[in-house]
Amino acid sequence: MKKTAFLSIGFLAIIALAAFAIFPANQIAANQPSINWAEVQDAKLSPQEMAGVYNFDKAHSNIGFRVKHMGLAEVPGYFSDFSGSINYDAADATKSSVEFTTKATSINTGNEGRDKHLRSADFFEVEKYSDITFKSTKIEKRGNNIVATGDFTMKGVTKQIQLPVTFNGMLKDQRGNIKMGFSIETTVNRRDYGINYGSTLPNGSLMLSDDVKINLQIEAAKAAPKPAATPAAE
Fold first, then answer.
1. Which residues lie closer than 8 Å to 81 by C-beta, 6 or more apart?
2. Which of 37-41, 43-47, 134-138 has the highest mean pLDDT?
3. Each residue's pLDDT tens digit, 196-205
4. How confident is the model over 164-195, as pLDDT tens digits?
5. Lower CB density within 10 Å: C or N end of the chain?
6. Residues 6+ apart with CB under 8 A from 116
7. Are 65 and 132 contacting, i.e. CB atoms less than 8 angstroms apart?
8. What are the backbone dihedrals phi and psi of residue 5, each rounded to the nearest 5 degrees, phi first?
């Protein structure tokens, strides 16, 4: 019965990812006084260097989730197969955008039998709904926060969600690559996406919590510019 929890989490993870892409570097500095911009952004980076498409670095990113089992302990899981990109507009961050796709088949909770169940029709039904996606529609400032709004689709259900995003920094690494990082922590109700599998214990407690906690840590690298097209020989 544990298996239920993890399904809902998968969807959470995805939505969260979308949120990162939209974080405007200079807006974050202005709206979140707790962030020391000198520490999170390379002062040598110009707006021209910062602008562009950033691809998620899977080797240094994590889409994780946790669901409470019988009200006693939170059981973790993650998705291992995902991709995403951020189109960052340094001149007007609200014109930035993000898209993300994760493969439902890649859910991993550390238990082979449970993972197989999560891929079944009781949960993700991966043979019919292989992809979980997010596409941003709006980026905005709200007080001291940045909020990313977008369409999240899982198992044939699309809902508009809003995510608070924490910007962790932007810099040029030792190889000269420009990178940025984001974090998201939020909670989602799995039943909003038709993930209802589970039971109630004799004492009235849920075998699996409806609420799923997600924690995303994303590092993205700026894509190399495409080489100029070579003129065709006459």
1. 102, 103, 105, 106
2. 134-138
3. 888 999 999 8
4. 888 888 999 999 999 999 888 888 888 888 88
5. C
6. none
7. no
8. -55, -40
Structure tokens at 161: 């969600």
Gap between the Cα atoms of 148 and 187, Å rounded: 15
Tokens of 155: 């198992």
pLDDT of residue 41: 55
pTM above threshold 0.85 = no
Q: Is 204 left (phi over 0), alpha (psi -120 to 50) or beta?
A: left
Q: What is the mean pLDDT of the chain?
A: 79
- Tokens representing residue 229 in the block: 């097209």
Report the C-alpha gap between 214 and 31 in whole angstroms: 24
d(Cα 162, Cα 78) in Å, to the nearest integer?
A: 21
Q: Answer yes or no: is pLDDT of 53 > 90.
A: yes
> What is the per-residue burial (b if ≥16 Cβ within 10 Å, else e) of 62-79?
ebbbbbbbeeeeebbbbb
Radius of gyration of the chain measured on its C-alpha atoms: 19
- Residue 99 and residue 179: Cα distance in Å, rounded? 17
Among 98, 106, 56, residue whose Cα is nearest residue 81? 106
Contact by Cβ (8 Å): 150, 190 = no
